[in-house]
């Protein structure tokens, strides 16, 4: 930690604006927000809570404010409920305590009550298609009634806020790890902090997909992202990129607009975010331990693991190339003598995925060979990773590719597209394919299915590899903050 010319040490402000917007809306948190959380809580420990503030744009007060960061030391897992108490002074209905399909309304009691009545009406009359449209089922609705409510957030309290422009001093550092584009009022506030307080501002860029793969992005969003990235160069001292590929994209962007900033590459982790995983298929485990690891799992998720399966994790959108993967799976099903596993998609619905959805509808999910775990909890996702044969990430483009690293952290190899950043994550531990070729995807999947010795050899290589951890990421972020020659 560096220190300014005075005796008072410099302060580190870590922006949490995008995390709080997600928590407030009670929307499923994306990979970017989870990355921010994992890094920030480690940085609090590395830098000392007394030297760190958690900052964010308070839309109600129209001010950029900050709070004490010490409470993060005791948060091992991302908890929307605990964060809701700290930042908003109230605890919403827990996500686990909200009925299926009603999580979005858990902070709106009247809407929650109304739609709960509607869902109960359709469940009582056996309207299965009504629930299917929302990615759920009557079975899931009924199972929720018997679920044991988890422990609620305890000991959390709202903390006092300080206005950053009133307390910050030259030399203090503001680190933005999340997605802050299209947040009304935030950019001007950051520019004022730069101009008036001479804060050193760092931004982690996760990808340039909105302006590189525009065919998979809503046009207005691409324009908003371009504006944000261009204007961020006015107030950022340095940029961090989450992969060498993202760094190359950033350099091309800066060359195009004629504005340069130093770029530090901070690769993300090859590690799952959940503290506890479930290894229920380990016969050496005591019976009690094996049974306890089933707690918190919906029956629908347990059912997915009754037969061998391959796992696909991530938002179900066109960029993920799901239609080609499904076409490859259809070929696998038709391959004589091949014992084909199911294909399980775990994630939430996304943009422009009509071709995949129409294929699933027309073929009855490929005759039942394709199944879904929509919006799984972290515990459920860990359970699926632990029990799959391997995973598949065949995207057209990724900024990093968290599911690839997460798969490796569970000792599972993967079929991975050989483009953008994904080879940086998979290394020599996965089977590669051409995302544009159904035949290439088929051949890569076929090899891992038909040749178990090859699959086990990759798993053995994974078990002896030093995978990158979130502590490694935090160490590299700290090194960037102490890098003063650029």
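^ Assign residues to that structure.
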């Amino acid at each position: 930690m560096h220190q300014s010319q005075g005796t008072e040490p410099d302060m580190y402000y870590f922006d949490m604006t995008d995390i709080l917007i997600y928590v407030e809306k009670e929307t499923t948190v994306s990979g970017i927000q989870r990355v921010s959380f994992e890094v920030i809580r480690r940085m609090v420990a590395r830098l000392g809570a007394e030297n760190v503030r958690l900052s964010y744009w308070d839309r109600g007060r129209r001010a950029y404010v900050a709070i004490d960061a010490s409470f993060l030391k005791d948060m091992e897992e991302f908890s929307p409920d605990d964060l809701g108490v700290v930042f908003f002074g109230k605890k919403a209905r827990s996500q686990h305590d909200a009925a299926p399909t009603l999580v979005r309304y858990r902070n709106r009691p009247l809407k929650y009550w109304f739609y709960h009545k509607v869902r109960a009406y359709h469940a009582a009359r056996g309207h299965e298609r009504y629930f299917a449209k929302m990615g759920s089922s009557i079975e899931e609705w009924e199972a929720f009634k018997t679920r044991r409510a988890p422990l609620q957030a305890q000991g959390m309290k709202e903390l006092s806020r300080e206005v950053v422009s009133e307390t910050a001093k030259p030399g203090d550092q503001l680190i933005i790890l999340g997605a802050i584009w299209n947040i009304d009022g935030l950019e001007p506030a950051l520019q004022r902090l730069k101009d008036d307080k001479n804060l050193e501002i760092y931004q982690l860029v996760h990808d340039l997909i909105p302006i590189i793969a525009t065919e998979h992005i809503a046009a207005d969003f691409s324009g908003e992202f371009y504006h944000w990235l261009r204007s961020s160069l006015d107030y950022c001292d340095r940029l961090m990129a989450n992969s060498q590929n993202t760094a190359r994209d950033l350099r091309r962007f800066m060359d195009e607009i004629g504005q340069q900033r130093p770029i530090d590459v901070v690769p993300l982790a090859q590690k799952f975010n959940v503290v506890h995983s479930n290894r229920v298929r380990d016969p050496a485990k005591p019976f009690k331990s094996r049974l306890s690891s089933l707690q918190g799992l919906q029956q629908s998720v347990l059912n997915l693991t009754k037969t061998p399966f391959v796992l696909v994790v991530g938002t179900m959108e066109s960029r993920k190339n799901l239609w080609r993967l499904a076409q490859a799976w259809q070929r696998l099903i038709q391959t004589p003598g091949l014992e084909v596993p199911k294909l399980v998609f775990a994630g939430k619905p996304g943009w422009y995925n009509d071709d995949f959805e129409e294929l699933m509808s027309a073929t009855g999910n490929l005759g039942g060979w394709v199944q879904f775990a929509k919006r799984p909890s972290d515990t459920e996702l860990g359970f699926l990773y632990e029990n799959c044969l391997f995973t598949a990430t065949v995207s057209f483009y990724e900024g990093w590719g968290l599911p690839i690293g997460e798969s490796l952290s569970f000792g599972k190899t993967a079929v991975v597209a050989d483009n953008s950043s994904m080879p940086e994550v998979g290394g020599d531990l996965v089977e590669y394919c051409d995302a544009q070729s159904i035949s290439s995807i088929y051949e890569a999947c076929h090899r891992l299915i038909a040749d178990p010795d090859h699959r086990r050899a990759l798993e053995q290589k994974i078990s002896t590899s030093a995978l990158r951890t979130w502590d490694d990421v935090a160490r590299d972020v700290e090194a960037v903050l102490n890098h003063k020659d650029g």
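The chain is about 45% helix and 15% strand.
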